[in-house]
Design a protein that fits this description.
Organism (chain A): Halalkalicoccus tibetensis
Largest sheet of chain A: none
Distance between the termini of chain B: 42 Å
Keywords (chain A): Cell membrane, Membrane, Transmembrane, Transmembrane helix, Transport
Oligomer: heterodimer
Protein name (chain A): Phosphate transport system permease protein PstA
Main location (chain A): membrane
Largest interface: A-B, 84 and 89 residues
Strand content of chain A: under 5%
Subcellular location (chain A): Cell membrane
Number of strands of chain B: 2
Structural class of chain B: mainly alpha
Chain lengths: 299, 337
């Protein structure tokens, strides 16, 4: 607003302060939005730097690291049993949570009547998603480890993780099913197909990319979880590569153990472990992104 | 399917009714799968309650019930931890040899300390970031900024713990605090607050931004037409109009902070401490559970049962937060067509 004409009606209004306040507010918002990004960058830089120092200055041998088990001596300490443990955990979590999650989502979206009970089940799902992960570990400890006397084995850990991620799989699958337009269902039903034939032959295939994407994201969550595994009694110092019914360790529990040790060499081992974990996570997110973009077609 | 045709259609009818039968069976199987989610909730509560009973008394609830029935009478319940001690004692030292004490206020206060501190980080920053994304940022900026912020939520919490110990405390906090003549240890509540705050920023920002986006443009345009500045529109129109969604995001972030485990265990430490001093080492409820579970306690011992007692309190706290969140969303939702 120009104020150069002296006798202007608005000449006595000074907008300098308003403009300054405006600018200040804008700057505050930008810095707040950038704060998270800066922190993320610092976090990644910190991990990279600690890893670099570990490898270059302290002399951690990456070959030994990826090929051997935990050791009291940092020079011989390795990550392999933790990696194997995490792979097993993810596979079993996938088996336990995928079918359960998809079946539940299918029932809720395709069969369930719009009743009070259905609403309660859905409210319960939101609630389960908000239960702290450590409580799922406690549940697995009480029911699977000590109740069914499975012991502190890998399967028990995978069950805890599966219960933890099932709500995520369900919600993602529900969204994928909801995105399938009703016309597709009606077309199939009109040919005389039963409801299940419609779902199996038409609806589920159309929703599959969305379901797969959601499941990969849920598994990415599972692979980074530490607390439930510690609760079911994962060994922190994984020396031997576990099978499904063995005592087990995983990548995050190993990282926890190393971060906690007072000897600083172990912190660099932890950083290297975190780097591997983050790379695997980036791979999983990338895969989810790829599936979403490549296969998600507007039906 | 009509049934008025005679004999010839018998075969197809059998197939059709077989299909129908299978349809019903599948429906039942799917219902069974759905009921597992309900069962999980019941199991969580049952397991926590059963063992918490065993923490206060000598036998778990299920043991007590079964023996009472067998003996056809009430067994005297010996109480090993009194409710008064649990809820009011200022000491939490479960593994003390002579005089173990179980006063949960120590752990609850630490949890609240961390949660409040984290809220002071995530709520202002998250809300401002949401306002920026929804009101100021261009489409391109938003397209890249929002997913980048959401990556923060995908980073495993153990990594935040490592970040706290290896960067936040020694590089960020210690030099700044030394200027003020304060010293800070390797483990301190402040580092826990900072990292939990950072990891809950995307939760606040993302959900708040969705709420702000659903505010119709008519409201904004009306304000602009009255000569309001962008600042006025953001702060006095958009924010109040989306307040229910924004508030729900706060509660979700708080609920997440209460249940957060690995970052606070690494950052804030494992020393129970009844204090409001953010520079002290404290032990939250979750940190106690994790550190205590590491030392494999005998099943049925007080230490073992104390995990469940703490877990029950934690579960009830997050449940309350989630219910409040649900209520706010339902009760105060502005519906814009």
């Amino acid at each position: 607003m120009s104020t150069d004409t002296g006798s202007d009606l608005l000449s006595d209004i000074d907008l300098t302060w308003v403009k300054r306040k405006e600018l200040l507010f804008h700057a505050t918002l930008v810095s707040a939005a950038l704060f998270g990004v800066v922190m993320l960058a610092l976090l990644i830089l910190d991990v990279l730097l600690e890893t670099a120092v570990g490898v270059v200055v302290i002399g951690i041998d990456v070959g030994t690291f990826v090929s051997s088990g935990a050791s009291r001596n940092w020079e011989n300490a390795g990550f392999l049993p933790a990696i194997i443990g995490s792979i097993w955990l993810v596979l079993f979590t996938l088996v336990f949570s995928f079918f359960l999650g998809v079946a539940t989502a299918t029932y809720l979206e395709e069969y369930a009547p719009r009743s009070r009970i259905t609403r309660l089940i859905e409210a319960n799902l939101t609630n389960l998603a908000g239960v702290p992960s450590v409580v799922y570990g406690l549940l697995a400890l009480g029911v699977f480890v000590n109740g069914l006397r499975l012991g502190e084995i890998l399967i028990a850990g995978a069950l805890a993780l599966a219960l933890l991620v099932v709500p995520i799989v369900i919600v993602a699958s529900q969204e994928a099913l909801r995105a399938v337009p009703d016309g597709v269902r009606h077309g199939s039903l009109a040919t005389g197909a039963t409801r299940w034939q419609t779902i199996r032959g038409v609806v589920l295939p159309a929703a599959l990319p969305g379901i797969v994407t959601g499941t990969i994201l849920a598994l990415a969550r599972a692979i980074g979880e530490t607390a439930p595994l510690i609760m079911v009694g994962a060994v922190l110092e994984a020396r031997q590569s576990p099978g499904p019914t063995d005592l087990f360790g995983s990548m995050p529990t190993m990282i926890y153990y190393w971060s906690f040790r007072p000897i600083t060499e172990f912190h660099h081992l932890a950083a290297l472990g975190i780097l591997i974990l983050l790379l695997i996570l980036v791979g999983m997110y990338g895969l989810a992104f790829f599936v979403r973009n490549r296969y998600e077609t507007g039906v | 399917m009509s049934t008025d045709t005679g004999q010839p259609s018998g075969i197809t009818e059998d197939i059709a009714s077989g299909d129908q039968r299978r349809d019903r069976m599948i429906r039942r199987i799917l219902l069974g799968a759905t009921s597992i989610t309900v069962l999980t909730t019941i199991a969580i509560f049952a397991v926590l309650f059963d063992n918490t009973w065993g923490f206060f008394f000598d036998a778990t609830f299920s043991e007590w019930v079964s023996t009472s029935i067998l003996n056809l009478g009430m067994d005297g319940l010996t109480q090993r931890v009194t409710f008064t001690e649990f809820f009011t004692d200022s000491q939490w030292r479960p593994s003390h040899a002579d005089d173990p004490r179980f006063g949960i206020p120590t752990l609850i206060s630490a949890t609240i300390l961390i949660t409040v501190g984290a809220a002071f980080v995530s709520i202002p920053i998250g809300t401002a970031a949401a306002l920026y994304l929804s009101e100021y940022a261009g489409t391109r900026t938003r397209k890249y900024l929002k997913p980048t912020l959401e990556v923060l939520a995908g980073v495993p919490t153990i990594v935040y713990g490592f970040f706290a110990v290896s960067f936040v405390t020694p590089v960020l906090l210690r030099p700044v605090l030394e200027v003020f003549g304060l010293s800070v240890g390797r483990n301190n509540a402040l580092a826990g607050m900072v990292v939990v705050g950072i990891m809950t920023i995307p939760m606040v920002a993302s959900i708040s931004e969705d709420a702000m986006n659903s505010v119709p443009d008519e409201l904004r345009n009306g304000a602009y037409a009255l000569g309001a500045s962008k600042y006025k529109v953001s702060a006095s129109v958009v924010l109040p109009a989306s307040i229910s969604g924004v508030f729900a995001s706060y509660i979700l972030a708080v609920s997440r902070a209460i249940g957060e485990t690995m970052a606070v265990t690494l950052a804030a430490g494992a020393t129970p401490n009844l204090t409001a001093n953010p520079l002290a080492e404290v032990q939250t409820m979750t940190a106690y559970m994790v550190t205590s579970a590491r030392s494999t306690a005998l099943v049925g011992s007080v230490t073992y049962q104390s995990l469940f007692a703490v877990g029950l309190v934690l579960f009830l706290m997050t449940l309350a937060a989630n219910l409040v969140n649900d209520y706010i969303k339902r009760r105060y939702r502005e519906v814009y067509q």
